[in-house]
Design a protein that fits this description.
It is a single chain. The protein is built from six helices and no strands. It has helices spanning 3-12, 17-44, 52-58, 63-73, 81-107, 114-117. The longest helix has 28 residues, at 17-44. The protein is elongated, with a radius of gyration of 19 Å. 20% of the residues are buried.
Amino acid sequence: MSPISRLKSIAARHHNGRLALAVSGAYTVVVQGTNLAVIAFMLLADDPGFVAVWAVFVSLPLSLPGLFVSSQIFPPDDLPDAVDLLALMGPCVAAGAFQAWVLWVLLRGRRLRPAEAGNGGNRPAEG
């Protein structure tokens, strides 16, 4: 079973599963795509400037406490560039993934009974 068909079958088990999958999936693509772009820009550019602000912005609100904890564990002055990049981007990646999961849980609705799951949950099962 392919990953896409597996996700579709999981979404079919819930009342609003398709909507929840679309919203949380789109959010995941935006957040992780932004994080990858920021990492690439920070590694390849001579002066990345404030590009990391985008990673924090798209993963708000949980990225702020994560960055605070990360800055307490890894003070930015003492780190090599690669570890500094990990200390900056790790909380943003984790916050985005967690928030996507929370969106899925909040939007998916109630779990359908097996008879309802077969007809997409749109009408009561006959029988």
